[in-house]
Amino acid sequence: MTLADSPALTQDRATAGSRPQRQPLAGRTALVSASETARMRTLGRELAAAGRRIANMAAGELDTPLAAPVRRAAIAAIEAGHNRYTDTSGLPDLRSAIAGLVAEKTGLAWTPAGISVTAGAKQALFNAAMTLIDPGCEVLIPCPYWTTFPTQIRIAGGRPVALDTTATGYLPTPAMIRAAITPATRMIVLNTPNNPTGRVYDAGLLDQIATIARDHDLWILFDECYGALVPAPAVHINLLRLRPDLRDRVVLVDSFSKSCAMTGWRIGYLAAPEPVIRAASAFQSHTASNPNVIAQHAVLAALTTGRAELDAFQADIRTLLAANRALALDILAGLDRVPVRPGEGGFYLYLDLGRLIGRRFADGSPVTDADAVAERLLGEAGVASVPGGAFGDPRGLRLSYAIDGDDLATGLRALVATLNRIA
Ligand SMILES: Cc1ncc(COP(=O)(O)O)c(C=O)c1O
């Protein structure tokens, strides 16, 4: 199979050329297109399945086996015959265990009533958007952003307002936040460590943003899904530990997807003031109901009897990621015209392709944008990446280094060769 035959690409062409749909679809379908990160991940997998050697740096997940206590507890939960609905917001024991985790992270007393267990962080974020955003509300989102944030805000009827951080080291400044606030602003989304840039917000910046949010009466949606994956010397700072005075306006979102290598199992959570949890849970009760019961039991065991093992698993992952990151940066130092601004956490590297756009590939065709580069990298270098259009930045390219070290090295060497051939 060649790139041109790929179902993921031909499907787009087929849709584009098909007859208009006669029975109308809802207007809101125009607000949503399939996630670009998912498309690139699928494209990489298809080519690999067809026999091509592909370094799949498009996926937003660890390329490692599942954390052992999670696997064992899931098997035990199946054997124990757990097959029923649970409470919408999760098993009471799991909510208690997560409340304990949140108390550890924030340094604040936390009760199960302040926790809702969800099908991954994505559902937690969606429930939060539905709960906090009225039609017409503006929501500030530092850009590049994880592609789902603005889409969910739009679905909730709000207006995402992107804060361009490409000239400020991929971090927002207090001045740009203040300048973007209008009477319609309801919320700011903070994601640290950041997807796609890997940047980790330091205490000084978080403190200033917190003060702005308090002064302008804003909610802060704080997504710390990669918080367990910050290697020393960088540190992940939980916003409420830094600013406990903001407890009534901060909504924390976290998940076990990235930190336990269990993206497919779908367990995340919302930690927030109780009225938010009650309202978010009501939405969930009419959409997904409870998250998967076996996955809930598995996470419960990992947080209780399996906790020491889980902590050791995460420490090993941090070591592995730090080694991959060093390897990747070493190879990418060979790029001629592409600056790499290494983030401090998570498992992504983000390239600024600005100085390549407008030039020509080795075969003479124009480098129009990051999409063109990503397609070329897949076809020529066997590297699946995610172009920045998905993150609101058509000049950027995201690479995950959470893959096998040999694939990473081979893929990145081929990537450097391809990009350096751009004349
Ligand atoms: C910043 C961020 N938040 C949330 C999620 C969703 O995580 P989950 O798989 O737990 O739904 C992702 C997944 O890529 C992410 O990058």
Automatic annotation (TrEMBL):
Its cofactor is pyridoxal 5'-phosphate. Its EC number is 2.6.1.-. Gene3D superfamilies: Aspartate Aminotransferase, domain 1 (3.90.1150.10), Type I PLP-dependent aspartate aminotransferase-like (Major domain) (3.40.640.10). It catalyses: L-aspartate + 2-oxoglutarate = oxaloacetate + L-glutamate. Residues 1-30 are annotated as: Disordered. Residues 8-21 have a biased composition (Polar residues). Pfam families: Aminotran_1_2. InterPro entries: Aminotransferase_I/II_large, AspAT/PAT-like, NHTrfase_class1_PyrdxlP-BS, PyrdxlP-dep_Trfase, PyrdxlP-dep_Trfase_major, PyrdxlP-dep_Trfase_small. GO terms for molecular function: transaminase activity. Keywords: Aminotransferase, Pyridoxal phosphate, Transferase. Residues 55-414 form the Aminotransferase class I/classII large domain. It comes from the Bacteria. Belongs to the class-I pyridoxal-phosphate-dependent aminotransferase family. This is Aminotransferase.
